[in-house]
Specification:
Length: 494
């Protein structure tokens, strides 16, 4: 077979080369093509092989770009962002993109082997906003706005997390390596967001009374269960040296109505109570850490806003509130609203995440609840409960932070809950393992409580990404932990 280089066509398609070499210098034109032209994809309309589908930009210079590319043709992807009179050159980004398989694109371009979808997340240093924005790829304009609407950090974080749910929803083995590329960017966004938040005291009563225990309740937006929860706790708290500290993340209701409701409650119940509003969603860790910081008691009881004593069994539940955790951390038995068992301690173990296409294999941790969903009922007698829990080990157990008891001094010595997990998920297991590593006991108290958490509720896209990123972060931190249960005995513990 004979191969012919069409040098005249090459010159005609590239006027700069025709001016430099003329149309008839076959040797020079061929040499240029082989040295530069082929790699530069001269004559190729890159727009047919690469698309920028979404551009998110925050007021602090965070950027998220998503789209697709035929990597056989777009083998070089250099991205430049032009904001007003400033150009930010990211350079070659193919290796920094998070590539994933897109069936819809593969069917069009005909490449089912290479991943064609991409995501990119970064922050621009020394950033300055302007109304005009352009995104260039290999020098060509792919996105332009003459009146850019800059997103707040919170809005950017929510949209970027939702955009990345396309990765979180896939088998973890195929996407685990991508978390290493996305995690630094999201960590910057999360830290920037937390730094902007502030807390304000909305309501307080009983501040003059000395207390030795503090119940910290951190909630998100919704306070519909708060007064009901306080009503059920009131018999154990009224007139006692205990306070309730409520931290409301991103509260969206009418503050004057909430204040009036709290004042009416306080007229009926002699309870030390304070409510603090966060200007946004500080997440589970930062919210509880703030509550612990303002708490006056020597013992802290962390309690989710949907935790209630079982009807008719209040005394055994309230006993948990008065116990002394010593130098350790105590959790409790939690049951679903229908009375079935939800939580009798937790353990962490790992699965081997594998992607043969990428040659990737890495342990991925998960956290499981002992006995979750078993027939054990909240109304069962103590003997039945103890028999059912006989196989739950006392050593190396983890307990959910939905209900914790710990001395404030111990909590502070341990550094509080880790805030490097975005919003929520895995931070309580992290804290438990660090307690165990420090030689401090983690125990499961036999008190019983109802946790009104929904069973199998669908989670929004943003939270699915949060769980995926946090799981990867947790896995890399504790994959070698001696407190992880061996995968071989995992099934015996379900």
């Amino acid at each position: 077979m004979k191969t012919t280089f069409l040098y005249r066509n090459y010159a005609e398609a590239n006027p700069d080369l025709a001016e430099l070499y003329g149309n008839d210098d076959e040797v020079a034109l061929r040499e240029h093509y082989e040295k530069y032209g082929a790699a530069e994809r001269r004559g190729v309309n890159l727009e047919d092989y690469l698309r920028v589908e979404k551009v998110l930009l925050s007021e602090e210079g965070h950027i998220c770009i998503s789209g697709w590319a035929d990597r056989r043709m777009a083998d070089s992807i250099a991205v430049t962002l032009v904001v007003g009179y400033t150009m930010y050159e990211f350079g070659e980004l193919r290796d920094r993109f998070c590539w994933y398989h897109r069936q819809d694109v593969a069917e069009v371009i005909g490449d089912f082997e290479r991943p064609s979808g991409y995501l990119f997340l970064a922050q621009i240093p020394d950033f300055r906003m302007h109304s005009e924005v352009m995104v260039l790829v290999n020098g060509k304009k792919y996105y332009e706005s003459k009146a850019m609407r800059w997103m707040s950090v919170q809005s950017f974080m929510s949209d970027a997390l939702s955009t990345c749910a396309v990765l979180a929803d896939r088998p973890v083995g195929t996407t685990m390596p991508l978390t290493e590329k996305l995690a630094p960017g999201f960590s910057q966004v999360w830290t920037s967001y937390l730094d902007r938040l502030s807390f304000t005291k909305l309501y307080e009563t009983g501040a003059e009374r000395a207390v030795d225990r503090s119940i910290v309740i951190t909630l998100y937006r919704d306070t519909t269960m708060l007064l009901s929860q306080l009503e059920t706790l009131a018999p154990a708290l009224a007139g006692q040296p205990v306070e309730v500290v409520v931290v409301a993340n991103d509260y969206t209701g009418e503050t004057h109505l909430l204040t009036a409701q709290l004042a009416a409650f306080s007229q009926l119940h002699d309870i030390c109570l304070s409510v603090h509003l966060c200007s946004g969603n500080s997440g589970f860790s930062a919210g509880n850490n703030y509550g612990a910081g303002v708490a006056r008691g020597e013992t802290l009881i962390f309690m989710n806003p949907d935790i209630f004593p079982p009807e008719g069994q209040e005394d055994q539940a309230f006993a948990f509130l008065t116990g002394d955790p010593g130098e350790g951390l105590d959790g409790a038995l939690l049951y679903y609203g229908d009375g079935s068992l939800m939580h009798s301690g937790m353990y962490t173990t790992s699965d081997q995440a594998v992607d043969a296409r990428q040659g990737f294999a890495e342990p991925v941790m998960r956290v499981e609840h002992y006995g979750k969903g078993l027939s054990l009922h909240v109304d069962d007698d103590d003997a039945t409960t103890e028999a059912a829990l006989a196989d739950v080990p006392e050593r190396g157990i983890l307990v959910t932070a939905a209900l914790w008891r710990i001395r404030k001094a111990v909590f502070q010595e341990m550094g509080g809950l880790p805030t490097d997990y975005i919003i929520a998920y895995y931070e309580d297991a992290d804290f438990c393992i660090k307690m165990l590593e420090a030689g401090r006991p983690v125990r499961l108290d036999r008190s019983r409580w109802i946790h009104m958490e929904g069973v199998g509720k669908p989670k929004p896209a943003m939270l699915r990404t949060v769980m995926w990123l946090n799981r990867a972060f947790y896995s890399r931190r504790f994959a070698a932990s001696p407190f992880a249960a061996p995968a071989a005995v995992d099934l015996s513990k379900l």
